[in-house]
Amino acid sequence: MGNSAAGMRQHTADVVHLPQTNVVKIQIRELQKRFALGSRRVDAIDNMDLDIRDGEFFCIVGPSGCGKSTLLRIIAGLETKSAGTIQLLRNDPSKPLNNMVFQEQSIFPWMNVRDNVAFGLKARGIKKDERYARVEPFIRKVGLEAFAEAYPHQLSGGMKQRVSIARAFANDPEILLMDEPFAALDEQTKFILQQELVRIWEETRKTVIYVTHSIDEAINLGDRIMIMSARPGRIKEIVDVSAHFPRPRKVEELKSTPAFGDLFGHIWSNLKHEFGTVKGDAR
Ligand SMILES: Nc1ncnc2c1ncn2[C@@H]1O[C@H](COP(=O)(O)OP(=O)(O)OP(=O)(O)O)[C@@H](O)[C@H]1O
Ligand SMILES: [Mg+2]
């Protein structure tokens, strides 16, 4: 699979230092990812060309196994690519380039909420007083101010995901990669966290790539939605949500608009053909 540390260094994205005026943040050309699975090969991503803009909230939907997580992991430098190029355009070398929020809970059970949120800052050598000062607003933004001293086992699932989100924003990366961060949550909690995420994102305007299985969620959150085909993952269509729903958005009002239903219908009619159509891999 070529996943060694040395292999990763050779194959992960090229980081280019460009001035802030540059509009494209992530430029992907002819990207391919092929996994070896025993004697078989699995084509996960096939010939993908994509530009993601600086400050954009970019959603990805597609059937299970179409390569969404693989794409995020390649952008994050956690996975190698087989061919093609990825350029991440860096605005501020003093900030971490990217930060991943995973579907499964990824906070440390032995740290309280404050220390979990401050983890990235600590790893960057920022002193305790300063990192606590910097995380406080984010703990507040996700509504956990009364739980700053609590440990993960004292929190609900939704509260733990809030900690992950606060940590990602407090770490202040240039690119935020979110892989179904709310998938395990109930509808109400998910909805509340979507609203919080939209609010924090509107304040910070980070480049976000957000993978979800939920068309609703993609419309609520995204500027654009990329619909991927079944494996090997290709771009089927990129839907411009911002043309229909300008910012700032009130997530709770979008759903009752006719435009929401139209957009949902359009995306679903495109996506539904992809279920049960995984193509055979070459052997
Ligand atoms: N480490 C690996 N080794 C071999 N095959 C892999 C590996 N990681 C992923 N794959 C394969 O690559 C394909 C894409 O996987 P990926 O996890 O990117 O899908 P996904 O779109 O995120 O799916 P889901 O929506 O279910 O999370 C799948 O067929 C999977 O089996
Ligand atoms: Mg996945």
Please explain how this structure is put together.
With 283 residues, this protein is α/β, with parallel strands linked by helices. The protein contains ten helices and ten strands. The strands form two sheets. It has a six-stranded mixed β-sheet with strand order 6-7-8-4-9-10, with helices on both faces. Residues 1-11 and 17-22 have low confidence and may be disordered.
Question: What distinguishing features does this structure have?
Answer:
283 residues, alpha/beta, Rossmann fold, six-stranded mixed β-sheet, four-stranded mixed β-sheet, 10 helices, 25% strand, binds adenosine-5'-triphosphate
CATH C-level class = Alpha Beta
Distance between the termini: 16 Å
CATH topology (level 3) name:
Rossmann fold
Number of domains: 1
CATH 2nd-level architecture: 3-Layer(aba) Sandwich
Tally of separate helices = 10
The CATH homologous superfamily is termed P-loop containing nucleotide triphosphate hydrolases
Order of helices and strands: HEEEEHEEHHHHEHEHEEHH
Q: Which class best fits the helix and strand makeup?
A: alpha/beta
Helical amount: 25-40%
> What integer is the average pLDDT?
87
| Rg over CA atoms | 19 Å
Note the beta-strand portion: 15-25%
**Rough outline:** globular
Ligand types: adenosine-5'-triphosphate, magnesium ion
How would you characterize the largest beta sheet? 6 strands, mixed
- Uncertain parts: 1-11, 17-22
Trace the largest sheet across and list its strands: 6-7-8-4-9-10
Secondary structure: number of strands: 10
